[in-house]
C-alpha cells in the first residue's frame, strides 16, 4: 500500500515506509552523536579529537560552556539545550566553575575550568555572520546552513561571500560535490592552499537547462576558490609571484601525472598513514622556500574536494607552519567529519550485531518448553498479520481498530489452545 491521503485529509504511509523512516532517523542520530550512547560522561577521555557537544542556556546563558551527550541527558534534562553537532579538541564542562553550585551527576570531580576549550556564539544558539538563531523564529522557511571545517561556525549560503549560490559545487540534485568548506575569515589563514594543484578544489558544475543532459556532459570549471576572480593556469593562480611560477613548472609534470610531487587518492593515503602515526616528508611538496613567503590573497570562501587533506604536505617545515597557525588538526584524519561519521556507522553496526547476539543468547538460556512457546507465539503473530494483509483492501488505510482486532484474534486463538 503506497502513501496516500484518506478522506479526512490525514497522510498515511505503509509499514515498510514507516520502518524505513525510523531506521533513517536512528542512523542520523548516530551520525550526529558519533555512536555515543550517552551512558557515561566523556570528561575522563580528556580533550577528545571530536565529539557531540551541547550548550545549556539554562545553566550558562552566556554561552561559555559545553557538555557531552550523557550530561545533556542526565544532568540537563528539561533544560534549554542547544545542539552544537560536533566540536574538536573539547572536554566536557558539566559541573565545573562555570555552572555555579550545580555539580555533574555523572562525574562531579572535575577541574575548575577546561582552559583549552574554545567557544563561539554557537554556544549562545547564534550562527552565521548575521548572528541569528537556528531555527530562526522570524523566518517562515528555514534554510540549510554550511559549516566551516576550521572555525566550526554555520553559515547561510547567502552570507558566505559569493555572488550567487550557483558558485557552490553541487550536483543537479543539489547534493554537495565538496567535502569541506572554509569560510571567508578562515580562508585568510589558508593562503598556502592556493599553491596546490586542481585536485585540491571541488569544481563548480555548469548545469545545462535541459533535463535530459547527462552529468558526464556537464562543463567543469577548474577554478580554485582561493584564486578569487583571477584567471588560472593548471589550477595555480595567475599573476602569482616568480616563486609560484617555479612551483608550477616543477610540479606540473610530477604531481598531476602521479610522479614524485603531489600524490592523491590511494597512494597518498598509504603514504600519509593515519592520525599520530603519520610520518613527515623529508622534501617539501611546495618547494623549500615557498612556505615562508606565501602571497596574501583576498579572503574568499573555499570548497575542498574529497580527501583533500591527504594532499597536504607533511614535511617538517609545513608541519611547523600548521602548528604556528594553530591548524595542525588539518593533517589529522580523525578530525574530519567524514571520518567521524565512518566511526559512528561502525559503532552502529557493532551495536546491532550485539543486540542480535543477545537475543540469540536469551533464547539459548531458556528451557525447551519456554523456547518453543516463544517461537510458536512469534509464528502465530506472523500468520495473523499475513491473514489480515491477504484480506485487506490496499486502497484503505490501516486504523487502530484494525490493529486491535489482530491482537484480539491472537488472544482468542491462544485461549482456544489453552
Account of the 3D structure:
- With 418 residues, this protein is α+β, with helices and mostly antiparallel strands.
- 31% of the residues lie in helices and 12% in strands.
- It has helices at 15-33, 69-74, 184-187, 242-255, 265-272, 316-324, 337-365, 368-391, 400-417; strands at residues 4-5, 11-12, 48-56, 81-90, 126-127, 132-133, 145-147, 154-156, 180-182, 204-206, 219-221, 232-233, 236-237, 302-304.
- The strands form seven sheets. A two-stranded antiparallel sheet has the order 1-2.
- A hairpin with a 5-residue loop joins strand 1 (4-5) and strand 2.
- Helix 1 (15-33) packs across helix 7 (337-365) and helix 8 (368-391) packs across helix 9.
- Mean pLDDT is 78; it is low at 1-6 and 210-277.
Q: What helical percentage do the residues reach? A: 25-40%
Average of pLDDT: 78
Please, how many helices? Answer: 9
Gap from first CA to last CA = 36 Å
Strand count, sense and barrel status of the largest sheet are:
2 strands, antiparallel
DSSP summary, beta strand count:
14
Parts with pLDDT < 50 across at least 5 consecutive residues? 1-6, 210-277
> What is the N-to-C order of secondary-structure elements (H for helix, E for strand)?
EEHEHEEEEEEHEEEEHHEHHHH
Structural class of the secondary structure composition?
Answer: alpha+beta
Strand content: 5-15%
* Outline type: globular
Radius of gyration: 28 Å
Amino acid at each position: 500500500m503506497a502513501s496516500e491521503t484518506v478522506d479526512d485529509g490525514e497522510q498515511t504511509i505503509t509499514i515498510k515506509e514507516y520502518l524505513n523512516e525510523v531506521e533513517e532517523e536512528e542512523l542520523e542520530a548516530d551520525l550526529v552523536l558519533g555512536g555515543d550512547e550517552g551512558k557515561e560522561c566523556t570528561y575522563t577521555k580528556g580533550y577528545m579529537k571530536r565529539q557531540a557537544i551541547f550548550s545549556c542556556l539554562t545553566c550558562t546563558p552566556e554561552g561559555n560552556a559545553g557538555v557531552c551527550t550523557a550530561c545533556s541527558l542526565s544532568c540537563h534534562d528539561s533544560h534549554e539545550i542547544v545542539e552544537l553537532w560536533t566540536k574538536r579538541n573539547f572536554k566536557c564542562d558539566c559541573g565545573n566553575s562555570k555552572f555555579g553550585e550545580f555539580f555533574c551527576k555523572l562525574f562531579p570531580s572535575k577541574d575548575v575550568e577546561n582552559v583549552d576549550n574554545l567557544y563561539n556564539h554557537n554556544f549562545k544558539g547564534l550562527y552565521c555572520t548575521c548572528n541569528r538563531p537556528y531555527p530562526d523564529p522570524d523566518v517562515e522557511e528555514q534554510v540549510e546552513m554550511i559549516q566551516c571545517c576550521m572555525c566550526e561556525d554555520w553559515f547561510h549560503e547567502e552570507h558566505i561571500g559569493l555572488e550567487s549560490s550557483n558558485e557552490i559545487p553541487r550536483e543537479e540534485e543539489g547534493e554537495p560535490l565538496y567535502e569541506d568548506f572554509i569560510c571567508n575569515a578562515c580562508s585568510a589563514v589558508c593562503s598556502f592552499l592556493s599553491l596546490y594543484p586542481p585536485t585540491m578544489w571541488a569544481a563548480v558544475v555548469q548545469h545545462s537547462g535541459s533535463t535530459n543532459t547527462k552529468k558526464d556532459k556537464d562543463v567543469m570549471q577548474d577554478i580554485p576558490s582561493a584564486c578569487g576572480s583571477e584567471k588560472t593556469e593548471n589550477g595555480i593562480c595567475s599573476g602569482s609571484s616568480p616563486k609560484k611560477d617555479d612551483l608550477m613548472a616543477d610540479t606540473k609534470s610530477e604531481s598531476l601525472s602521479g610522479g614524485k610531487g603531489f600524490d592523491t587518492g590511494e597512494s597518498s593515503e598509504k603514504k600519509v598513514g593515519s592520525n599520530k602515526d603519520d610520518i613527515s616528508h623529508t622534501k617539501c611538496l611546495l618547494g623549500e622556500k615557498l612556505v615562508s613567503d606565501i602571497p596574501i590573497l583576498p579572503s574568499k570562501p573555499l570548497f575542498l574536494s574529497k580527501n583533500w587533506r591527504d594532499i597536504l604536505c607533511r614535511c617538517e617545515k609545513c608541519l611547523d607552519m600548521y602548528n604556528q597557525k594553530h591548524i595542525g588538526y588539518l593533517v589529522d584524519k580523525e578530525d574530519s567529519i567524514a571520518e567521524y561519521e565512518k566511526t559512528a556507522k561502525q559503532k552502529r553496526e557493532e551495536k546491532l550485531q550485539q543486540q542480535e547476539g543477545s537475543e540469540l543468547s536469551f533464547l539459548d538460556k531458556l528451557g525447551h518448553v519456554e523456547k518453543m512457546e516463544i517461537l510458536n507465539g512469534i509464528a502465530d503473530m506472523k500468520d495473523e498479520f499475513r491473514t489480515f494483509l491477504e484480506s485487506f483492501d490496499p486502497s484503505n488505510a490501516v486504523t487502530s481498530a484494525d490493529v486491535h482486532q489482530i491482537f484480539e484474534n491472537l488472544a482468542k486463538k491462544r485461549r482456544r489452545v489453552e
